Amino acid sequence: GDCLRGRLQAKEGKLVLGGIFDYVTKMVNADRILIIACGTSWHAGLVAEYIFEEFCRIPVEVEYASEFRYRNPIVNEKDVVIAISQSGETADTLAAIELAKSKGATIIGVCNVVGSSIARATHAGSYTHAGPEIGVASTKAFTAQISVLTMMALMIAEKKGSLSESKYRSLLFELESVPDKVSKALLLNDQLEEIAKVFKDARNFLYLGRGFNFPVALEGALKLKEISYIHAEGYPAAEMKHGPIALIDEEMPVVVIATKDSSYEKIVSNVQEVKARKGKVIAVVSEGDTEIPKMADYVIEVPHISDALMPLIAVIPLQLLSYHIAVMRGCNVDQPRNLAKSVTV
Ligand code: F1P
User: Fold this and answer.
1) What's phi and psi for 205, nearest 5 deg?
2) 214 C-alpha vs ligand 1 centroid, how far in Å?
3) Can you tell which superkingdom this protein's organism belongs to (predicted)?
4) Which of 67, 83, 148, 334 is the most buried (most CB within 10 A)?
């Protein structure tokens, strides 16, 4: 039927498929993948863009459903649309799905709530099974969405032959190490509470990241805005020189996601640029890094993992930082003002 069925699982080194199995060929042969979502789910979609293009070599576009639904987009029956939603009830995402469907696209859903409106509106897909989000702001849904989307990309890449067998296997192997690494990242809690004490009265924050970590910078900024009401902006670090650099002075905390990957040397120079303007750098680095810790004011070490999987780990300290700042400012982290769990209008 027209609902989400089954789920993806890594079992004995192979991906076992549920409901999206019927659509694998369609996904493998897609001219492009269009991702639609809102808020945190949109950030998970941006991570997925990088992952799908890297692993599957299929062009990907990511759009805010809230924008897509009101314009006249070019969509056709060769498009595969992935709709991402924690609640499965977001009205903008639902309307965007209906629009894409009316133009003949195949809709794959990534939802958390079983039997939700979005799940029912899609042709097939996968549930994230992250459990209920107690608070309004999405946290574990983000990591669950990225995990599912990564497995989808691996499945397509395997069928397409766009990844070498050894790369495919090593990524699957690394995916299995994620729960342990997330547990380790959660042990950073006390350190983040201390950093939160220093910055709880800041009026603005800047978040920077490159590559797979750029959407993490956006998500870190969104989490801070949503639950602590501090103005925050996320930027690709390379874009800093095109504008946001003007904001940096000794009053500006700059969270830099600077884990070891192919763009590491570039992010080192971004940190230098911030320090040269006396910004306060809070750096998220890979365990054992020695270069950035020499320059940063505060250093948060996370376990190392391949760059494509780093968003799953790097977002944890940013969520904890927002949480502690919000609590210290007396904000209700579970029910932030003006926000609804499901935005149904
Ligand atoms: C999208 C979203 C959430 C945000 C807030 C408002 O929801 O923007 O990311 O935290 O709850 O809605 P969803 O479509 O993922 O349920």
Assistant:
1) -135, 145
2) 19
3) Bacteria
4) 83
